[in-house]
Specification:
This protein is mainly alpha-helical. Helices cover 74% and strands 6% of the residues.
Length: 141
């Protein structure tokens, strides 16, 4: 068994939690833009189950980090960097979801679990899940 200093794992988890909010927002902005052509604060609030004031606070943070542009009365738009992050998050989410389903997790549970797990998987773990899915698919064929 590999021995890891526990404080290192806790630190990574804290960082993952801080990044989780940002990732959820950029992913949902991308989904809203794809579905409706625009993302508005009120739509984000409804989808994420938070107040519009909470959305405004996060959008300010996303703007500061260079992930979105928000213009009064014009909606919220992802920058190139924001779009790249949204695509990475969506792809990672799909890999985690597919891996859970391949393991036999019931769909309703896999959908709920993947929403949280996706933010805590390293690139190495996602790569391993991809390899597992390829092997699983080959065994199924």
């Amino acid at each position: 068994m590999v021995e890891i200093k526990r404080h290192t794992s806790f630190e990574r988890t804290r960082q993952d939690h801080q990044r989780e909010l940002i990732e959820d927002y950029v992913e949902e902005i991308a989904v809203l833009r794809a579905e409706h052509g625009e993302a508005r604060a009120s739509d984000l609030a409804e989808r994420l189950g938070v107040s519009t004031a909470a959305v405004s606070k996060v959008i300010t943070r996303l703007r500061t980090e260079g992930l979105v542009e928000a213009r009064p009365y014009r909606g919220i738009f992802l920058t190139d960097e924001g779009q790249t992050l949204a695509e990475k998050v969506a792809e990672r989410h799909q890999v985690v979801l597919n891996a859970l389903l391949a393991l036999g997790v019931p769909e309703h549970v896999a959908v709920a679990d993947s929403e949280g797990i996706e933010h805590h998987c390293s690139d190495e773990t996602v790569a391993a899940m991809r390899r597992f899915l390829v092997e699983h698919q080959q065994q199924s064929d």
